[in-house]
Protein 1
Amino acid sequence: MKPNVDYVPDRDVDTEMDRALRELLTTCFTKKQDVVFRHRRYFVDPYPHRWVIRDPGGRLVAHVGVHEKCVVAADRVYRVGGIGEVCVHPDCRGRGYVKLMMNTIHEFLTEREFDFSILFGDHDVYGSSGYRPVSNLYVAEKPNAKPDERKAVTGLIRELGDRPWPETDVILLGNKF
Ligand SMILES: CC(C)(COP(=O)(O)OP(=O)(O)OC[C@H]1O[C@@H](n2cnc3c(N)ncnc32)[C@H](O)[C@@H]1OP(=O)(O)O)[C@@H](O)C(=O)NCCC(=O)NCCS
């Protein structure tokens, strides 16, 4: 039976939920830099949306965070869902929870007229959820970054509506997520 994918807005996260989120993130992300999850529930910037799956006992076993971001291409602004902190508890891997959560998130973003979803991850994991690599994505951390201050990044994107991914350079404003 498919588990529920529950929406948890960040504004509703209480002390107990914060503890449970940090416990899951700390269990799943084990590199040196991931130590940040011991004391906060986000890696770089906080985000307004997340989806979780719970096991029958109510324990959090899967998580995806979503930032609201913008990209600019040829002076046009596009709304982007920035996917981060995707994880599944080691006890529950290999059950297709990633695609299940992604389907729910894509519906949410499409209903709200987001143009694209972007993530930085492994194509083997996200290809079946409709993501593909692009080679024209740049990050501009400073608002008025000059072209030579932009960093080329390898991102995976998914179109959410009718708008095709631009062919010109695409600038992601703010931090990578
Ligand atoms: C990555 C992770 C979320 C995958 O969880 P999972 O439960 O195995 O994922 P799913 O069962 O939903 O599988 C999704 C797809 O990823 C593939 N996949 C899963 N683990 C993989 C791995 N280590 N290498 C390559 N592909 C992998 C699956 O084969 C599946 O592909 P398919 O849909 O084409 O059949 C989980 O291993 C995890 O939490 N890792 C630690 C945190 C992490 O690295 N997160 C990713 C940050 S980008």
Protein 2
Amino acid sequence: MAQGHSIDEYLETIYFLAFPIGEYPVAGGSSPTLASRVAEMLRVSRASAGEMLKRLEREGLIERGEHKEALLTDTGRARAERVVRKHRIIERLLTDFMGYTAAEAHVHADALGDTFTEDMVERIDERLGHPERCPHGWPVDPDFEQEENKQLAPLAELEPGARATIVRLAEHDGDLLHWFYDEGLVPGREIEVRDAQPAAGQITVRLNGAERAIGEKAAAGLFVKPA
Ligand SMILES: [Zn+2]
């Protein structure tokens, strides 16, 4: 969707920025930074994102912190957690029941997000056997997700020689998500950092017995558990 993102989509994005893994993706934490990051992730203008953040503030879903940074209120956090959980269950409905690929599931789940009531989502979850993760590795249970964040790091932060297992894939960039699957960079895959070339904006990894270069953007979106 190029325009007209719902409050829930904004909350989902803010949730992702509020519980980062490692340093990525929030660098400064100030309000302009948040609006910019939200704008970047939802591919809307900085002005549209700023307007929507004001609306979320008026509705009591976010508040300004000590340094004027935007923070989720308790109400906002609870709603954001319901939104991400729902999104992940619907993704599993799309892959497990409807036969979509993991790469396709994210965008379709965004489109379907507002279709199902909470009761419907609970019934889907039950029928799917209470899946633990979305197809891209993100836990369905937000408490577990936040706990697990402490054990993960973006691949980009690993030193040469480090080995790790891919656990989650950044999913807000549909093209990048497809690329991860095309390249076999999927949850459960083991990876070893061989060399970093920051000047060239890439790192070299060993994957499936072969060495290959991965760009910075992709390395920042692969969340791994160091061995
Ligand atoms: Zn997902």
